DNA sequence: ATTATCTATAGATCTATAGATAATGC
DNA sequence: ATTATCTATAGATCTATAGATAATGC
Protein backbone atom coordinates (compact mmCIF):
# COMPACT_ATOMS: atom_id res chain seq x y z
CA UNK A 1 0.00 0.00 0.00
CA UNK A 2 2.93 2.28 0.68
CA UNK A 3 3.88 2.17 -2.94
CA UNK A 4 0.43 3.27 -3.97
CA UNK A 5 0.46 6.11 -1.46
CA UNK A 6 3.75 7.26 -2.78
CA UNK A 7 2.53 7.19 -6.36
CA UNK A 8 -0.49 9.21 -5.41
CA UNK A 9 1.69 11.75 -3.70
CA UNK A 10 3.88 12.05 -6.77
CA UNK A 11 0.84 12.54 -8.96
CA UNK A 12 -0.47 15.23 -6.63
CA UNK A 13 2.86 16.99 -6.76
CA UNK A 14 2.98 16.82 -10.53
CA UNK A 15 -0.47 18.30 -10.78
CA UNK A 16 0.55 21.13 -8.49
CA UNK A 17 3.75 21.68 -10.47
CA UNK A 18 1.72 21.93 -13.67
CA UNK A 19 -0.35 24.66 -12.10
CA UNK A 20 2.53 26.64 -10.74
CA UNK A 21 4.43 26.42 -14.03
CA UNK A 22 1.36 27.69 -15.85
CA UNK A 23 1.25 30.65 -13.49
CA UNK A 24 4.91 31.56 -13.32
CA UNK A 25 6.85 29.50 -15.85
CA UNK A 26 9.51 27.01 -14.84
CA UNK A 27 12.18 29.52 -13.82
CA UNK A 28 9.62 31.51 -11.89
CA UNK A 29 8.11 28.49 -10.17
CA UNK A 30 9.49 27.83 -6.70
CA UNK A 31 9.58 24.44 -5.09
CA UNK A 32 8.08 25.99 -2.00
CA UNK A 33 4.99 27.16 -3.86
CA UNK A 34 4.48 23.72 -5.37
CA UNK A 35 5.00 22.09 -1.99
CA UNK A 36 2.55 24.41 -0.32
CA UNK A 37 -0.21 23.33 -2.69
CA UNK A 38 0.06 19.74 -1.60
CA UNK A 39 0.55 20.57 2.07
CA UNK A 40 4.24 19.77 2.22
CA UNK A 41 7.31 21.76 3.05
CA UNK A 42 9.77 22.45 0.27
CA UNK A 43 12.13 19.91 1.82
CA UNK A 44 9.36 17.36 2.01
CA UNK A 45 8.78 17.75 -1.71
CA UNK A 46 12.44 17.10 -2.42
CA UNK A 47 11.95 13.68 -0.97
CA UNK A 48 9.90 12.79 -4.05
CA UNK A 49 11.85 14.72 -6.66
CA UNK A 50 15.44 15.27 -5.61
CA UNK A 51 15.95 18.45 -7.65
CA UNK A 52 13.81 21.05 -9.32
CA UNK A 53 14.93 19.81 -12.68
CA UNK A 54 13.89 16.26 -11.86
CA UNK A 55 10.42 17.62 -11.18
CA UNK A 56 10.34 19.35 -14.55
CA UNK A 57 11.42 16.21 -16.35
CA UNK A 58 8.65 14.29 -14.67
CA UNK A 59 6.14 16.93 -15.70
CA UNK A 60 7.25 16.79 -19.31
CA UNK A 61 7.20 13.01 -19.41
CA UNK A 62 3.73 12.88 -18.03
CA UNK A 63 2.49 15.59 -20.33
CA UNK A 64 3.45 13.61 -23.38
CA UNK A 65 0.86 11.07 -22.35
CA UNK A 66 -2.32 13.12 -22.47
CA UNK A 67 -1.26 15.39 -25.19
CA UNK A 68 -1.05 12.68 -27.76
CA UNK A 69 -4.14 11.04 -26.42
CA UNK A 70 -1.76 8.26 -25.45
CA UNK A 71 -1.19 7.54 -29.11
CA UNK A 72 2.48 8.46 -29.15
CA UNK A 73 4.14 11.12 -31.18
CA UNK A 74 5.95 9.35 -33.92
CA UNK A 75 3.15 7.15 -35.11
CA UNK A 76 1.27 8.35 -38.10
CA UNK A 77 -1.78 8.09 -35.92
CA UNK A 78 -2.72 11.71 -36.41
CA UNK A 79 -5.81 12.28 -38.38
CA UNK A 80 -6.79 15.78 -39.28
CA UNK A 81 -10.27 15.54 -37.86
CA UNK A 82 -8.86 14.16 -34.62
CA UNK A 83 -6.39 17.01 -34.49
CA UNK A 84 -9.26 19.44 -34.82
CA UNK A 85 -10.99 17.71 -31.92
CA UNK A 86 -7.83 17.93 -29.87
CA UNK A 87 -7.69 21.67 -30.44
CA UNK A 88 -11.32 21.92 -29.44
CA UNK A 89 -10.61 19.96 -26.30
CA UNK A 90 -7.59 22.14 -25.51
CA UNK A 91 -9.76 25.22 -25.75
CA UNK A 92 -11.55 23.85 -22.70
CA UNK A 93 -8.42 23.51 -20.58
CA UNK A 94 -6.54 26.77 -20.71
CA UNK A 95 -4.40 25.78 -17.75
CA UNK A 96 -2.77 22.92 -19.56
CA UNK A 97 -2.27 24.94 -22.70
CA UNK A 98 -0.71 27.68 -20.62
CA UNK A 99 1.74 25.31 -18.96
CA UNK A 100 2.79 23.96 -22.28
CA UNK A 101 3.07 27.34 -23.99
CA UNK A 102 5.03 28.88 -21.13
CA UNK A 103 7.47 25.98 -21.19
CA UNK A 104 7.89 26.09 -24.96
CA UNK A 105 8.57 29.81 -24.78
CA UNK A 106 11.13 29.44 -22.04
CA UNK A 107 12.77 26.49 -23.71
CA UNK A 108 14.34 28.65 -26.40
CA UNK A 109 16.46 30.46 -23.80
CA UNK A 110 20.03 29.35 -23.17
CA UNK A 111 20.61 26.17 -21.22
CA UNK A 112 16.97 25.63 -20.49
CA UNK A 113 16.40 22.13 -19.16
CA UNK A 114 13.42 21.57 -21.47
CA UNK A 115 15.24 22.58 -24.64
CA UNK A 116 16.36 19.09 -25.57
CA UNK A 117 12.94 17.72 -24.80
CA UNK A 118 11.14 20.13 -27.10
CA UNK A 119 13.70 19.85 -29.87
CA UNK A 120 13.31 16.10 -30.08
CA UNK A 121 9.60 16.26 -29.59
CA UNK A 122 9.10 18.66 -32.47
CA UNK A 123 11.23 16.60 -34.81
CA UNK A 124 9.03 13.61 -34.04
CA UNK A 125 5.82 15.58 -34.32
CA UNK A 126 6.77 17.01 -37.70
CA UNK A 127 7.54 13.53 -38.90
CA UNK A 128 4.28 12.17 -37.63
CA UNK A 129 2.32 15.03 -39.13
CA UNK A 130 3.95 14.60 -42.50
CA UNK A 131 3.06 10.91 -42.49
CA UNK A 132 -0.49 11.70 -41.48
CA UNK A 133 -0.88 14.36 -44.17
CA UNK A 134 0.44 11.96 -46.78
CA UNK A 135 -1.94 9.25 -45.70
CA UNK A 136 -4.89 11.60 -45.72
CA UNK A 137 -4.26 13.90 -48.66
CA UNK A 138 -1.67 12.09 -50.73
CA UNK A 139 1.59 13.33 -52.17
CA UNK A 140 0.56 16.81 -53.21
CA UNK A 141 -1.27 19.42 -51.22
CA UNK A 142 -2.58 22.77 -52.41
CA UNK A 143 0.10 24.98 -53.87
CA UNK A 144 2.02 21.87 -54.80
CA UNK A 145 3.34 21.51 -51.23
CA UNK A 146 4.65 18.17 -50.11
CA UNK A 147 3.53 16.71 -46.78
CA UNK A 148 7.03 17.47 -45.45
CA UNK A 149 6.60 21.12 -46.35
CA UNK A 150 3.16 21.35 -44.81
CA UNK A 151 4.01 19.59 -41.54
CA UNK A 152 6.02 22.42 -39.93
CA UNK A 153 3.27 24.84 -40.93
CA UNK A 154 0.67 22.68 -39.26
CA UNK A 155 2.70 22.56 -36.07
CA UNK A 156 3.37 26.29 -36.23
CA UNK A 157 -0.32 27.08 -36.57
CA UNK A 158 -1.13 24.90 -33.56
CA UNK A 159 1.45 26.62 -31.37
CA UNK A 160 0.96 30.12 -32.68
CA UNK A 161 -2.78 30.01 -32.24
CA UNK A 162 -2.32 28.94 -28.65
CA UNK A 163 -0.38 32.09 -27.83
CA UNK A 164 -2.91 34.36 -29.47
CA UNK A 165 -5.74 32.55 -27.77
CA UNK A 166 -4.15 32.57 -24.32
CA UNK A 167 -3.49 36.30 -24.57
CA UNK A 168 -6.98 37.12 -25.74
CA UNK A 169 -9.43 34.23 -25.62
CA UNK A 170 -12.31 36.53 -26.41
CA UNK A 171 -10.83 37.67 -29.71
CA UNK A 172 -9.37 34.46 -31.04
CA UNK A 173 -11.45 31.41 -31.89
CA UNK A 174 -8.69 28.86 -31.69
CA UNK A 175 -10.61 25.78 -32.84
CA UNK A 176 -12.31 27.74 -35.60
CA UNK A 177 -9.06 29.17 -36.86
CA UNK A 178 -7.49 25.74 -36.87
CA UNK A 179 -10.34 24.34 -38.92
CA UNK A 180 -9.83 27.23 -41.31
CA UNK A 181 -6.25 26.19 -41.71
CA UNK A 182 -7.26 22.62 -42.43
CA UNK A 183 -9.51 23.98 -45.16
CA UNK A 184 -6.46 25.54 -46.75
CA UNK A 185 -4.58 22.26 -46.63
CA UNK A 186 -7.33 20.09 -48.03
CA UNK A 187 -6.86 19.40 -51.74
CA UNK A 188 -9.97 20.41 -53.63
CA UNK B 1 26.24 66.97 -24.34
CA UNK B 2 25.27 65.37 -21.09
CA UNK B 3 21.91 64.54 -22.55
CA UNK B 4 23.50 62.76 -25.48
CA UNK B 5 25.76 60.75 -23.18
CA UNK B 6 22.78 59.74 -21.17
CA UNK B 7 20.86 58.64 -24.22
CA UNK B 8 23.79 56.57 -25.35
CA UNK B 9 24.00 54.94 -21.97
CA UNK B 10 20.33 54.08 -22.07
CA UNK B 11 20.72 52.59 -25.50
CA UNK B 12 23.66 50.51 -24.32
CA UNK B 13 21.65 49.25 -21.40
CA UNK B 14 18.71 48.36 -23.61
CA UNK B 15 20.96 46.42 -25.93
CA UNK B 16 22.40 44.52 -22.98
CA UNK B 17 18.93 43.87 -21.61
CA UNK B 18 17.85 42.44 -24.96
CA UNK B 19 20.74 40.02 -24.81
CA UNK B 20 20.16 38.92 -21.26
CA UNK B 21 16.45 38.45 -21.85
CA UNK B 22 17.24 36.30 -24.88
CA UNK B 23 19.47 34.15 -22.71
CA UNK B 24 17.33 33.83 -19.60
CA UNK B 25 13.92 35.34 -20.24
CA UNK B 26 12.63 38.33 -18.34
CA UNK B 27 12.01 36.63 -15.03
CA UNK B 28 15.38 34.94 -15.22
CA UNK B 29 17.25 38.09 -16.19
CA UNK B 30 18.87 39.88 -13.27
CA UNK B 31 19.56 43.58 -13.22
CA UNK B 32 23.07 42.79 -12.05
CA UNK B 33 23.83 40.74 -15.16
CA UNK B 34 22.55 43.50 -17.43
CA UNK B 35 24.55 46.08 -15.49
CA UNK B 36 27.69 44.02 -15.68
CA UNK B 37 27.54 44.00 -19.46
CA UNK B 38 27.71 47.75 -19.63
CA UNK B 39 30.25 48.08 -16.84
CA UNK B 40 27.87 49.36 -14.22
CA UNK B 41 26.78 48.13 -10.84
CA UNK B 42 23.20 47.03 -10.45
CA UNK B 43 22.48 50.21 -8.49
CA UNK B 44 24.09 52.29 -11.19
CA UNK B 45 21.72 50.79 -13.71
CA UNK B 46 18.72 51.67 -11.58
CA UNK B 47 19.68 55.29 -12.08
CA UNK B 48 18.57 54.97 -15.71
CA UNK B 49 15.61 52.66 -15.24
CA UNK B 50 14.15 52.91 -11.77
CA UNK B 51 12.72 49.39 -11.69
CA UNK B 52 13.20 46.14 -13.55
CA UNK B 53 9.78 46.52 -15.05
CA UNK B 54 10.61 49.99 -16.37
CA UNK B 55 13.54 48.43 -18.17
CA UNK B 56 11.29 45.81 -19.75
CA UNK B 57 8.81 48.41 -20.89
CA UNK B 58 11.62 50.35 -22.54
CA UNK B 59 12.82 47.20 -24.28
CA UNK B 60 9.34 46.46 -25.61
CA UNK B 61 8.80 50.01 -26.81
CA UNK B 62 12.06 50.03 -28.66
CA UNK B 63 11.48 46.66 -30.18
CA UNK B 64 8.30 47.81 -31.82
CA UNK B 65 10.39 50.15 -33.89
CA UNK B 66 12.64 47.74 -35.76
CA UNK B 67 10.21 44.96 -35.93
CA UNK B 68 7.80 46.82 -38.08
CA UNK B 69 10.58 48.39 -40.05
CA UNK B 70 9.34 51.59 -38.46
CA UNK B 71 6.15 51.27 -40.43
CA UNK B 72 3.88 50.89 -37.44
CA UNK B 73 1.64 48.01 -36.60
CA UNK B 74 -1.81 49.14 -37.39
CA UNK B 75 -1.21 50.51 -40.82
CA UNK B 76 -2.07 48.25 -43.68
CA UNK B 77 1.50 48.70 -44.77
CA UNK B 78 2.21 45.00 -44.74
CA UNK B 79 2.84 43.47 -48.07
CA UNK B 80 3.28 39.75 -48.34
CA UNK B 81 6.57 39.93 -50.17
CA UNK B 82 7.90 42.36 -47.58
CA UNK B 83 6.79 40.03 -44.84
CA UNK B 84 8.72 37.24 -46.50
CA UNK B 85 11.78 39.47 -46.56
CA UNK B 86 11.32 40.28 -42.91
CA UNK B 87 11.31 36.59 -42.07
CA UNK B 88 14.44 36.15 -44.13
CA UNK B 89 16.06 39.00 -42.29
CA UNK B 90 15.00 37.58 -38.94
CA UNK B 91 16.65 34.30 -39.82
CA UNK B 92 19.91 36.22 -39.74
CA UNK B 93 19.46 37.58 -36.24
CA UNK B 94 18.56 34.71 -33.96
CA UNK B 95 19.26 36.79 -30.87
CA UNK B 96 16.46 39.21 -31.55
CA UNK B 97 14.06 36.45 -32.46
CA UNK B 98 14.99 34.66 -29.27
CA UNK B 99 14.33 37.72 -27.13
CA UNK B 100 10.96 38.18 -28.70
CA UNK B 101 9.96 34.52 -28.53
CA UNK B 102 11.06 34.16 -24.92
CA UNK B 103 9.03 37.21 -23.94
CA UNK B 104 5.96 36.09 -25.85
CA UNK B 105 6.16 32.70 -24.17
CA UNK B 106 6.52 34.19 -20.71
CA UNK B 107 3.79 36.72 -21.33
CA UNK B 108 1.04 34.11 -21.12
CA UNK B 109 1.86 33.44 -17.48
CA UNK B 110 -0.10 35.16 -14.73
CA UNK B 111 0.55 38.80 -14.03
CA UNK B 112 3.39 39.04 -16.50
CA UNK B 113 4.28 42.67 -17.16
CA UNK B 114 4.39 42.12 -20.92
CA UNK B 115 0.97 40.51 -21.14
CA UNK B 116 -0.92 43.70 -21.85
CA UNK B 117 1.68 44.76 -24.37
CA UNK B 118 1.42 41.56 -26.39
CA UNK B 119 -2.33 41.39 -26.18
CA UNK B 120 -2.75 44.82 -27.68
CA UNK B 121 0.04 44.32 -30.14
CA UNK B 122 -1.49 41.14 -31.51
CA UNK B 123 -4.89 42.71 -31.91
CA UNK B 124 -3.30 45.47 -33.97
CA UNK B 125 -1.17 43.09 -35.98
CA UNK B 126 -4.12 40.88 -36.85
CA UNK B 127 -6.02 43.94 -37.99
CA UNK B 128 -3.12 45.16 -40.09
CA UNK B 129 -2.61 41.75 -41.63
CA UNK B 130 -6.25 41.41 -42.52
CA UNK B 131 -6.16 44.78 -44.23
CA UNK B 132 -3.00 43.85 -46.09
CA UNK B 133 -4.40 40.51 -47.21
CA UNK B 134 -7.55 42.19 -48.46
CA UNK B 135 -5.57 44.77 -50.39
CA UNK B 136 -3.37 42.14 -51.94
CA UNK B 137 -5.66 39.20 -52.55
CA UNK B 138 -9.13 40.65 -52.36
CA UNK B 139 -12.14 39.50 -50.43
CA UNK B 140 -11.80 35.77 -50.82
CA UNK B 141 -8.77 33.62 -50.25
CA UNK B 142 -8.36 29.91 -50.98
CA UNK B 143 -10.88 27.75 -49.19
CA UNK B 144 -13.23 30.73 -49.21
CA UNK B 145 -11.47 32.25 -46.20
CA UNK B 146 -11.93 35.92 -45.50
CA UNK B 147 -8.90 38.10 -44.78
CA UNK B 148 -10.06 38.24 -41.14
CA UNK B 149 -9.97 34.47 -40.95
CA UNK B 150 -6.55 34.22 -42.55
CA UNK B 151 -4.89 36.95 -40.48
CA UNK B 152 -4.57 35.01 -37.21
CA UNK B 153 -3.23 32.04 -39.16
CA UNK B 154 -0.59 34.23 -40.75
CA UNK B 155 0.48 35.53 -37.36
CA UNK B 156 0.43 32.03 -35.88
CA UNK B 157 2.66 30.70 -38.62
CA UNK B 158 5.16 33.51 -38.07
CA UNK B 159 5.38 32.86 -34.34
CA UNK B 160 5.17 29.10 -34.48
CA UNK B 161 7.91 28.82 -37.06
CA UNK B 162 10.18 30.94 -34.89
CA UNK B 163 9.95 28.45 -32.04
CA UNK B 164 10.64 25.48 -34.25
CA UNK B 165 13.52 27.30 -35.90
CA UNK B 166 15.09 28.48 -32.64
CA UNK B 167 14.97 24.98 -31.24
CA UNK B 168 16.47 23.38 -34.31
CA UNK B 169 17.74 25.83 -36.91
CA UNK B 170 19.34 23.02 -38.89
CA UNK B 171 16.05 21.20 -39.39
CA UNK B 172 13.67 24.06 -40.02
CA UNK B 173 13.95 26.42 -42.95
CA UNK B 174 11.98 29.28 -41.50
CA UNK B 175 11.95 31.61 -44.51
CA UNK B 176 11.24 28.72 -46.87
CA UNK B 177 8.39 27.45 -44.76
CA UNK B 178 6.91 30.92 -44.57
CA UNK B 179 7.00 31.26 -48.34
CA UNK B 180 5.26 27.89 -48.55
CA UNK B 181 2.51 29.26 -46.38
CA UNK B 182 2.13 32.30 -48.61
CA UNK B 183 1.72 29.92 -51.51
CA UNK B 184 -1.22 28.39 -49.71
CA UNK B 185 -2.80 31.78 -49.18
CA UNK B 186 -2.39 33.09 -52.71
CA UNK B 187 -5.56 32.74 -54.76
CA UNK B 188 -4.80 30.79 -57.92
C1' DA C 1 22.15 72.23 -9.19
C1' DT C 2 22.09 68.12 -11.60
C1' DT C 3 23.81 63.86 -13.19
C1' DA C 4 26.29 59.60 -12.83
C1' DT C 5 27.96 56.15 -9.97
C1' DC C 6 29.33 53.83 -5.99
C1' DT C 7 29.11 51.40 -1.20
C1' DA C 8 26.19 49.58 2.25
C1' DT C 9 22.38 47.19 3.30
C1' DA C 10 17.52 45.66 4.19
C1' DG C 11 14.48 42.19 3.42
C1' DA C 12 12.96 38.56 0.42
C1' DT C 13 13.61 34.48 -1.84
C1' DC C 14 15.60 30.14 -3.62
C1' DT C 15 17.71 25.47 -3.99
C1' DA C 16 19.78 21.99 -1.70
C1' DT C 17 22.02 19.41 2.22
C1' DA C 18 22.18 17.44 6.97
C1' DG C 19 20.15 15.22 10.28
C1' DA C 20 16.19 14.32 13.48
C1' DT C 21 11.70 11.98 14.24
C1' DA C 22 7.82 9.33 13.53
C1' DA C 23 5.33 5.89 11.06
C1' DT C 24 5.06 1.68 8.12
C1' DG C 25 6.37 -2.88 6.39
C1' DC C 26 8.72 -7.03 6.96
C1' DA D 1 14.81 -1.24 7.38
C1' DT D 2 12.49 1.95 4.76
C1' DT D 3 9.61 5.77 3.88
C1' DA D 4 7.69 10.22 4.76
C1' DT D 5 8.30 14.56 6.73
C1' DC D 6 10.07 18.06 9.48
C1' DT D 7 13.49 21.73 11.47
C1' DA D 8 17.71 24.05 10.82
C1' DT D 9 20.64 26.13 7.90
C1' DA D 10 24.24 27.17 4.34
C1' DG D 11 25.15 29.84 0.60
C1' DA D 12 23.42 32.21 -3.36
C1' DT D 13 20.75 35.53 -5.36
C1' DC D 14 17.51 39.39 -6.19
C1' DT D 15 15.26 44.01 -6.19
C1' DA D 16 15.18 48.27 -4.29
C1' DT D 17 16.32 52.12 -0.98
C1' DA D 18 19.53 55.35 1.40
C1' DG D 19 23.01 58.13 1.24
C1' DA D 20 27.85 59.37 -0.09
C1' DT D 21 31.03 61.20 -3.67
C1' DA D 22 32.68 62.98 -7.74
C1' DA D 23 32.01 65.22 -12.06
C1' DT D 24 29.46 68.33 -15.19
C1' DG D 25 26.72 72.37 -16.53
C1' DC D 26 25.18 76.83 -15.60
Automatic annotation (TrEMBL), chains A, B:
Q: Which GO terms describe its molecular function?
A: DNA-binding transcription factor activity; transcription cis-regulatory region binding
Q: Name one Pfam family in it.
A: TetR_C_6
Q: Which residues form the HTH tetR-type domain?
A: 7-67
Taxonomically, which superkingdom?
Answer: Bacteria
* Keywords for this protein: DNA-binding, Repressor, Transcription, Transcription regulation
Q: Which residues bind DNA?
A: 30-49
Against InterPro entries, the record matches this protein to: BetI_C (IPR039538), Homeodomain-like_sf (IPR009057), HTH-type_TetR-like_transc_reg (IPR050109), HTH_TetR (IPR001647), Tet_transcr_reg_TetR-rel_C_sf (IPR036271)
Q: What is this protein called?
A: TetR family transcriptional regulator
Amino acid sequence: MARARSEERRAEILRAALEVIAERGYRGASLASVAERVGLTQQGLLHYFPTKEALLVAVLDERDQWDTGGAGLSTAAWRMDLLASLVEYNAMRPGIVQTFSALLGESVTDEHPAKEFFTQRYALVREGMAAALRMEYGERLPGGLTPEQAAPLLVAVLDGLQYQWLLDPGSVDMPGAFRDFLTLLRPE
